[in-house]
Amino acid sequence: MQLPSLRIGSKVARTCIIQGGMSVRISLHRLAAAVAEAGGVGTIGGMGIPPEELRREIRAARALTEGIFGANLMYAGYLFDRLLDVCIEERVDYVVIGAGFARGPFKRLGEAGIPAFCIISSVKAARIAAKTPGIVGIVVESGQAGGHLGPEDPEISTWDLFPPVRAALKEAGFTGPIIAAGGLLTREDLLRCLAMGADGVQMGIRFAMTEECAASDAMKAAWVAATGSKVTDWSPTGMASRSIVPHPAPFEALPVTQAEGSEYRCTDCLRYCLHRDEKQSHCIYNALINAQRGRVENGLIFCGGRVGEINDIVPVAEVFRRLTTPLPGEDGLMSAD
């Protein structure tokens, strides 16, 4: 079967595949543009970069594609409001917001005519999001996603979380696209999500492990070598997070720095940080940027729950070829909504 298209505001992507917006310089303009060119929805990770860098990334992506791309912003981020300003000023095709919830940003995006998606992980959040003006699409993210996790059960699968959250959205009258996310890698996964009533899927780690991703070669090699993932409470946000196994260093002992040879210094990357005043603690931004720059031994490497099943770094075009090529007997994977 041919995959359905996906409407984002007034634009329509050829395929219902959204690339997850992985922040701290993992998904930048090359990756977002390549996904958009392939017919999906590209996403620039907006957390962990200054506003003017985000502006440059948006313009660089626009120079490479006429396809659909936008930005992922984390409400917990210290510069969230200024980054949102850039997205509105640059007229991105859509903005997806996670890591916290407030009605104001969605109202602003709605008034600006920019489609806004939110990321949720519970039935309770579904009932709130469905009634929030400005939200036109919703990403339901399970515990198998990479990085910070929203579900109460950080191990819950998409197959267990998506159906009740989708049902709650429909009961509340939500009519926009509902996207499944977390631990999705293959065409079989995509078809199974569509059979559950999803309008599309969001994939993170599969697109992180591509040639166009801005992660360092050392970080990509660590993903390829990973045997799996695990959930820890290492993050200073207080939220559980998922990262690779085995990890280059114990989380509790990561000697993170802003640059080699510099002393520990908080970067104020989060609105709320458990360790902001603890000078012997870590800064999560430093740990993430160390990995992105290749210092994986002093870095934190987030990943999706099924990273151990990916054994190659390929171009984005090859990922799309695998996702869009029909499987033998695949009609049996689909069922009526």
Name of the top-level CATH class of the largest domain: Alpha Beta
- What order do the strands of the largest sheet run in, or round the barrel if closed? 3-11-10-8-7-6-5-4
Name the beta content range: 15-25%
Provide the helix percentage. 25-40%
CATH fold description of the largest domain: TIM Barrel
Largest sheet: 8 strands, parallel
What is the CATH architecture annotation of the largest domain? Alpha-Beta Barrel
Number of strands: 13
| Overall average residue pLDDT | 89
Number of helices: 11
Output the helix-strand order.
EEEHEHEHEHEHEEHEHEHHEEHH
- The domain tally reads 2
State the end-to-end distance. Answer: 16 Å
Shape: globular
Task: Label the structural class.
Answer: alpha/beta
Low-confidence stretches: 255-264
Evaluate the radius of gyration.
19 Å
CATH-wise, what's the superfamily of the largest domain?
A: Aldolase class I
Report on the structure:
This protein is an alpha/beta fold and 337 residues long. It folds into 2 domains: 6-214 and 312-325, TIM Barrel (Alpha-Beta Barrel), CATH 3.20.20; 217-308, no CATH class. The chain has helices at residues 29-37, 51-64, 80-89, 103-112, 123-129, 158-171, 187-195, 205-208, 217-225, 284-292, 316-324, and strands at residues 6-8, 11-13, 17-19, 41-45, 68-74, 95-98, 116-120, 135-141, 147-148, 178-181, 200-203, 228-232, 241-245. The chain has an 8-stranded parallel beta sheet with strand order 3-11-10-8-7-6-5-4. It has a 3-stranded antiparallel beta sheet with strand order 9-13-12, with no helix packed on it. The protein has a two-stranded antiparallel sheet with strand order 1-2. Strand 5, helix 3 (80-89) and strand 6 (95-98) form a beta-alpha-beta unit. Helix 5 runs parallel beside helix 6. It is globular, with a radius of gyration of 19 Å.
